[in-house]
Design a protein that fits this description.
Helices cover 0% and strands 46% of the residues. The chain is built from no helices and 12 strands. The strands form 3 sheets. Strands 1-9-6-11-4 form a 5-stranded antiparallel beta sheet, with no helix packed on it. A 5-stranded antiparallel beta sheet has the order 8-7-10-5-12, with no helix packed on it.
Amino acid sequence: MDLPKIIFGGKHSDERGKLLFNNDFDTSQIKRIYIIEHKSISFERGWQGHKIEQRWFFSMSGSFKISLIAVDNWITPSNDIKPIEYILKESKFNVLHVPAGYITSIQAIEKSSKLIVMSDYFINEINDEYRFPINYFKQN
C-alpha cells in the first residue's frame, strides 16, 4: 500500500504581492474537485474513505487537521489503529496526497476554513465509499 505524503508548495513575495505555488503537484489524475467548509471547529467529519479511490487535499483558507487510518479490513476494521495526523494551512500551498486504502477524519482548526478536495474518479463512477462512526476508533 502506498503511503500518504505531503507535496510541498512554496511562496514568493515581492513589490507586486504574493505568489503561492506547487510545481511538484501533478494534477493529471484528477477527475473532480469540491470544497468542504465546516460550520464549526468542533465538528469532525469522518471516518470515511476508499479502497480504490485516492484523494488530494489542500487548505484554500484557514487550516485543517486531517487524520488518516490505513484500513486493515473493510468490513470490520480493527478499532485500535492509531491515526496519522496532518495539519494543512492556507499559508502554504502544500497538498496532502491520500492514496487508496485509507479513511479520513477532517476537522477545521480555524473558523471559516475551506478545504479543497480532489479525486481521481467521477461521482458514481465506482462503488467505493466506506463510512465508520466517528467514535469507532479508540482514542489513544
